[in-house]
Amino acid sequence: MSVFSRGFGLRRRESDPSLPPGQYLTEDFPVLSAGPTQFVDTDDWRFFLQTEKGRTEWSWAEAMALPIEEVATDIHCVTRWSKLGTSWRGISLDSIFAGVDTEYRYVMAHSYGGYTTNVPLDDLLGGKAWLAFEFDGEPLEPVHGGPMRLLVPHLYFWKSAKWVRGLQMQQNDDPGFWEQNGYHLRGDPWKEQRYW
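^ Molybdopterin-binding protein, sequence as received from the core. Prediction below:
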């Protein structure tokens, strides 16, 4: 069951050329989820990276000891809203993958609550993706994926998995939850890659 907020104010793309095609500008931060909000205490939170060669795991404290970055970016939802100039704090996936030896080129992100989404590894590295734990200077609220969510802002926002708990390397670009239900395997908003 999807959860969403109603009534957020939108403005058409024609009034702002910085919006991808078919998008509308919102000042709000709409809440859309594939299921109920997950409430994960940071004492219980764990994050894993599973490759074909083994598994690495981080506690909250271990994750917070990694380099933290400030991220200023626009975000775009497949439901056609865009929010410009958002500010986040998070851990670059470049730090998570530092020293990782894998021949696989695809990743399945796993969330608390069972949600999954597939992302090519190239879309997660090179300063393109983070494990985000703050939004607008405040701890990330559970309705927006707190305590930690994946942030992949150059793709539609369903790729930025809420309540992230791990990344599993995969040999093939197997589809995640929304991708199995007709959403595009990659989801580039500038190419309007909404559906298969």
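Residues 60-64 form the longest helix (5 residues).
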